[in-house]
Design brief:
The chain is α+β, with helices and mostly antiparallel strands. The chain folds into two domains: 33 residues, no CATH class; 89 residues, Immunoglobulin-like (Sandwich), CATH 2.60.40.790. It has three helices and seven strands, in the order H-H-E-E-E-E-E-E-E-H. A four-stranded antiparallel sheet has the order 1-2-7-6, with no helix packed on it. Strands 3-4-5 form a three-stranded antiparallel sheet, with no helix packed on it.
Length: 154
């Protein structure tokens, strides 16, 4: 695979650090990314999403969901098990993990639930009013003169 040097991009731009970091992270993604635990990302509405993580064997107290530095961090630490258990076969992996999801601008976590061995994290994209499209009314020159006179006489 090719290796790209993004140093010229950092030297020639101002204020685009987030985009450069995103490109750098995407291009240098490790091929051997962890596959545990499995997860789904689904779109539940126009601006709503749900991340479902398979966390069989973990209690809600052993799970942690945090948002920091523009990323969602899901971690699990299993409490020590009682001595004296002997497994003939142990196929349910309950090892500790940390999974990170990069969040886009204006995406926030609205809640998390744990049911039937699944951790569901709900997200919503809230576009600020300043970024939403708005319609500008086109007036006639006579309307503008009237409004200007009204504003000066008041």
């Amino acid at each position: 695979m090719r290796s790209f040097d993004l140093a010229p991009l950092y030297r020639a731009t101002v204020g685009f650090d987030r985009i450069a970091d995103l490109m750098d992270r995407a291009l240098s993604a490790d091929v051997a990314q962890p596959t545990y635990p499995p997860y789904n990302i689904e779109k539940t509405a126009e601006d709503a999403y749900r991340i479902s993580v398979a966390v069989a064997g973990f209690t809600p107290d052993e799970l942690s969901v945090e948002v920091k530095e523009g990323a969602l961090h899901v971690t699990a630490r299993k409490a020590p098990e009682a001595e004296g258990k002997t497994y003939l076969h142990r196929g349910i992996a309950t090892r500790a993990f940390e999974r990170r999801f990069a969040l886009a601008d204006h995406v926030r976590v609205t809640g998390a639930t744990h049911e039937h061995g699944m951790l569901h994290i709900d997200l919503i994209r809230e576009t600020p009013e300043a970024l939403k499209p708005r319609r500008i009314e086109i007036g006639r020159p006579a309307d503008l003169e009237t409004k200007a006179l009204e504003s000066t006489t008041v």
